Amino acid sequence: MSFDIFSYESLVHAVSGAAGSVTAMTVFFPLDTARLRLQVDEQRKATSTPSILAEIMREEGLLAPYRGWFPVICSLCCSNFVYFYCFHSLKASWLKGRPSAPATDLMFGVVAGVVNVLVTTPLWVVNTRLKLQGSKFRCADFQPTSYSGILDAFAQIARDEGVSALWNGTIPSLLLVLNPAIQFMIYEGLKRQLRRGVPRELTSLEVFLIGAVAKAIATTMTYPLQTVQSILRFGQINASAGRSKFLSSLETIRCLLVKRVRKYGLIGLFKGLEAKLLQTVLTAALMFLLYEKIASFTFRVMGLSSSQVKRR
């Protein structure tokens, strides 16, 4: 089996990861809608996932929780393809069949995350705008947008706010590469523990559980930065703060975190965490399950299942 960066094996991992993530996100998409509203709409009184979903459907229609599904799925598919491809190709090229370790998994995860952020941030900026377009906000200074689709959103943002606005939230996104890196480090470590002494395919339940545990830990550790990331991507920063031109700066991140703590206390940094954990843990668990099954099936068809189990 080749260990080159441009290898068929890396492509299988990338396609499997992208397909698994798209399917899982589609299943749990309404939970992501609830999470995003709780993060960016500070005046909304509903504070739990069921209550905010009920409120959204009552005010905006039954299909409102799936608003912005297509751009999110496009962004997620591209993002996971890039991430899984980079992670597994770097790992294969570096290790060349040798056993991995938590430190190396974390390193590969960070590098793959940086590449992913720089390549796909414009897609996430656009999908955040489209996902929130037409939403009923409680914020008095909310300025509605009008995009007819993904390409129109790209064009309007670049024209009205400058091309650099497509990379709004890049700094917190770069900091947040720790999220998938920690997730993969824990996931790969738990896989090695379960396989210790007996190389084998994990059961569906084992994959689902370790995927859920890995994502829950990573999400809780990095959630405050995820909130800032959503606010910056949305682009609805109060002009009175005088910092709109520094949307991607560390100073803006600090100001947003301090403002949120002063207004809501430390608990404000974790507003929407319930919805995020529900969505991201279930989505990640299902994604890893589908990813493992798709990759395993593909390698089995190729006649490489045994060697692949040993190397992954």
List keywords for this structure.
312 residues; mainly alpha; 12 helices; 0% strand; globular; disordered C terminus
Q: Your description of this structure?
A:
By secondary structure, the protein is mainly alpha-helical. 71% of the residues lie in helices and 0% in strands. The chain is built from 12 helices and no strands. Helix 2 crosses helix 3. The longest helix is centred in the middle third of the chain and has 31 residues. It is globular, with a radius of gyration of 20 Å. The C terminus is likely disordered.
Layout: helices, strands, pairs:
Blueprint: H1 8-27, H2 29-40, H3 49-60, H4 69-95, H5 102-132, H6 150-161, H7 170-175, H8 178-195, H9 204-234, H10 250-264, H11 273-301, H12 305-311
Helix pairs in contact: 1-4, 1-11, 2-3, 2-11, 4-5, 5-6, 5-8, 8-9, 9-11, 11-12
What does this entry show, briefly?
With 312 residues, the chain is mostly helical. The chain is 71% helix and 0% strand.
Largest sheet: none
Mean pLDDT: 80
Q: Using DSSP, what is the number of strands?
A: 0
Instruction: Detail the poorly predicted runs.
Output: 238-248, 306-312
| Overall 3D shape | globular
Distance between the termini: 13 Å
